[in-house]
Queue: 3 jobs
Job 1
Amino acid sequence: MAMNLFYPEYEVIRNKDKCTNCKICQNECANEVHNYNEKLRIMTDDSMKCVNCHRCVATCPTKALKIIKADYTFKQNSNWTKSTIEEIYKQSSSGGVLLSSMGNPNDYPVYWDKILINASQVTNPPIDSLREPMETKVFLGKKSNTIRRDANGKLITKLEPQLEISAPIIFAAMSYGSISYNAHEALAKASEQLGILYNTGEGGLHNKLYKYGRNTIVQVASGRFGVYKDYLEAGAAIEIKIGQGAKPGIGGHLPGSKIVGDISETRMIPEGSSAISPAPHHDIYSIEDLRQLIYSLKEATEYKKPIIVKVAAVHNIAAIASGIARSGADIIAIDGFRGGTGAAPTRIRDNVGIPIELALASVDQRLREEGIRGNISIIAGGSIRNSADIIKAIALGADAVYIATAALISLGCHLCRSCHMGKCNWGIATQQPELVKRLDSNDGCTKLYNLITAWKNEIKEMMGGMGINSIEALKGNRLMLRGIGLNEKELEILGIKHAGE
Ligand code: SF4
Ligand code: SF4
């Protein structure tokens, strides 16, 4: 048998004076790291299996545990780094494609952190957001160029369907199957309470969640899992998923072992059969084909629902967006290369796609230049981490943002990046019933509600500081932004001046 050449990534440190051998860590760790040795009457651990999810650290009643990064000293250099060497060991042992979860962790520029927000001083004074009305509500969908009324003042312009949300924030697509039912239910309940939306992802809609339809975006992906008339009618909007930031250009695969019970029923595929989403939609090879699907979905839902087309941020995103805006879509969702995923090939996640900041700015600019910006709303996603990122995204041209990783973190995710293993100790990215029940959907809903409420308040405060009292007035207002440490080309694409100018 070939010898494994890789070592544990983390080390479990147990304070023997504090450990009472209560075995809680053994019960809490689905990765079977901890084990009670009956003979020696001590807890032992297999660090090799640890993913640093912190479940045992958080639940240990005497706080006897800590997890540290193992410090095996590889003879690395800046070309052959420790992780590059380890990945080769892994692949030479398994012969397989490396899989990862969550977003691209590599050291590419995070443009949000190189953009600064303006504040009013003296003239055009700030607005006191605690005392003055601040409008965070937005409407997503095609806007009419003219509004016509009859002699009695009655509106005669036919308005396109709009999504009304209380803040420019939407929970991004995460399918039932990639995350647990309880996580989905928490997202649905919080969306209802907040007056925003969540997104089914490509796994269909669990029948118990149909009641949250007004706050649901139902997705139609290349696998078409769970898609039928009632599903399309249940949602407030329909999203055609063409691409995803974490894995542009490839499809998805949920192994047959995870297609059980409710998941098989919701996806409408037999138990045990793998859910393969092909890389392309097999009926879309041009903008005209996309238009056909958009109008089929509009026809099926009596033109009452906005249609979103979601694409990954790739090199020629501005031209792609222009085509989508002309295809009849009401909203385009652009997902940057830091966007999360339940599972993606590591090489693709870490090397394919472009940052959302650059993609968003170039799309907004192109649509304005072509005079079609009003034809379509833009949702930007792919690692929106806080309310300041949202302000910057809106000022760069977004109508709203998608958040997913931040939402999961508020549910307890510790970013161990092991979702693809299906053993999430926090009950989020798992279908194992004993793990799923660790996440209480009411508690999760409260946390999501608090997070978005806090962000909403911060958004109001920052807008007030800028002397702006509505998201609409901030949208595409790049004068409110300045770059720091960016070169001429980056500033040109972002359409902003450098700090000090
Ligand atoms: S995988 Fe998580 S629960 Fe298990 S030992 Fe590591 S940190 Fe603790
Ligand atoms: S969802 Fe769970 S498995 Fe995935 S990164 Fe978060 S804690 Fe880890």
Job 2
Amino acid sequence: MTDSRHETSFRLGTRQVQRLGYGAMQLAGRGVFGPPKNRAAAVAVLREAVASGVNHIDTSDFYGPHITNQIIREALHPYPDDLVIVTKVSARRGPDGSWIPAMSPAELTQAVHDNLRNLGLDVLEVVNLRSMHNVHHPAEGPLDEQVTALAELQHQGLIRHIGLSNVTRTQIAAGRRICEIVCVQNHYNLAHRADDALVDDLARDGVAYVPFFPLGGFTPLQSSTLSDVAARLEVTPMQVALAWLLHRSPNILLIPGTSSLVHLRENLAARGLTLTPDLLAELDGIAVAH
Ligand SMILES: NC(=O)c1ccc[n+]([C@@H]2O[C@H](COP(=O)([O-])OP(=O)(O)OC[C@H]3O[C@@H](n4cnc5c(N)ncnc54)[C@H](OP(=O)(O)O)[C@@H]3O)[C@@H](O)[C@H]2O)c1
């Protein structure tokens, strides 16, 4: 394992971003659907994140839908020059909050325009194509038509860079034959390490790996080893989980999601946490136990 804790930033497309960013999904209502209970609190979280050095925010227009992007715009527009907002396309929401694949070129084009309008941008810095072949995990299936559609929007100047999400190695390789893929956003954390080899391969190629559910997502990470290490360091388990990811590989960019200022501060403090090789080895055991 590479000790990458000293690398505080990494290249995302043509921009250098801080490795500890912010994921905006928690800013919508329950089930990522509808408005949040407290919109002012959501605005405050975004403003404090940016004031604290975060310059990479992950979002999508299907969070809410539309609402999360509108809150980002309300909180941060006009955007600081160094802020990189990354969005994702390929789903829409049913009236009951369900996640419905929307992967046709026409739907992807519509989604890009929705993101531009709701974020108040003329061009999207990075758009991830989120595969919906299986909603829950990467599943083989063609994405050429979808990547080609995004590449066309890139040629039109609406998108600067393209990434892939919820994808397999085969899909990444196929995507790279069509256009440059600047990041991969897949499910990965201390306990869920199916992408271990992929993380290392992308690091060698200078491609960012952005784990979603870095804290376990809808089922937050729970492990006695994690709690024990955190207690010894007098920090929280979530801080250890984020620090572990920062140590894991220099191309890992973090986007922990929270609707709470207290949790935001706690998560950002993980930037200063050093894990010794002994502790890293102990934490590596968590995945083996799963
Ligand atoms: N590409 C994809 O398919 C995909 C899928 C899912 C997510 N994402 C992106 O990835 C980002 C991160 O994922 P996520 O937000 O689902 O999951 P996550 O970051 O793993 O965890 C978020 C959960 O942990 C809680 N939390 C955050 N900080 C905490 C802390 N310090 N202590 C205790 N609990 C804490 C949050 O609740 P509180 O609000 O109470 O803090 C929330 O319930 C999202 O915001 C989204 O941008 C992408």
Job 3
Amino acid sequence: MAGRDRFLLAGVMGWPVMYSRSPVLHNYFFKQYALAGTYVPLAIKPDNLEAALRALAPLGFAGCNLTIPHKERALAIVDEVDDLARRIGAISCVVVRPDGSLSGTNNDVHGFARNILQQQPAWRADGGPAVVIGAGGGARAVVYSLVERGAPEIRLVNRTRARAEALARDFGPSVMPIDWNDRHRALEGAAMLVNTTSQGMVGQPPLDLELRALPASALVADIVYIPLETPLLAAARRRGNRSVDGLGMLLHQACIAWKLWFGIEPEVTPELRSVVEATLPPQAT
Ligand SMILES: NC(=O)c1ccc[n+]([C@@H]2O[C@H](COP(=O)([O-])OP(=O)(O)OC[C@H]3O[C@@H](n4cnc5c(N)ncnc54)[C@H](OP(=O)(O)O)[C@@H]3O)[C@@H](O)[C@H]2O)c1
């Protein structure tokens, strides 16, 4: 349990960082547990990442989250990277250890699976082929999670095919790179579809994907959570597919971070969701 005799500090480093909803949700936890502490957005330019991470210990931070564009670069900076983060190739959470050294892990993997299971408890990754769109940092966490949970086949569609091929090499034969031009057909017989691209996010065009070939039984998930209902999720809902939004992934990974930083693991409750939801645009504009 976190000490109550000191002010607790954590934050998120990104560039830009002001869009991040992490301060809202972590500061809700401080209030929920009546702990003196705060979670701050830290706008860190890429060239300053090492100095900023090294400043965490002297400033008294318990750790920080990392967001775009720092997740990969931090691998070469922290003192220890756990197997999960190394395998994924990205650090989403840094922990300051008692001796001031830094360890890096990746909470997005578990955040993804816990979110799906909370919203769709009957979901099983081994229930059939999954189609993952995108091959960036978010995709690597999603694919890792699906492989670990026994997905028999992961069709990986990315605009830049070489990036999908690199990911497939890292994660084994169940991951099959697919050409961007074949993305609509790749949905045939799929049990699950996950968007991990930035498409559909506020300020970006919708994901260019025709759902006609997707079975009505397929589960559709988006890791984008601004807006909460992306155009992809709206299209899935209209044709009767079950869907899971990306907000829960953010909430679940934050709970894991709290356990690592402060020894307390909060739950993702409807109240927590509604606190963060209140700050999001409900639909794509
Ligand atoms: N819910 C959560 O907790 C959570 C966690 C992590 C990320 N996310 C969200 O997931 C999204 C992706 O994040 P990331 O870290 O994976 O980013 P990233 O590493 O920069 O990857 C971006 C991906 O989007 C694709 N893409 C970009 N523009 C595209 C376009 N015009 N058409 C088709 N594909 C395009 C890229 O394809 P190329 O390889 O061809 O460039 C790449 O696959 C962001 O919106 C982020 O906020 C959410």
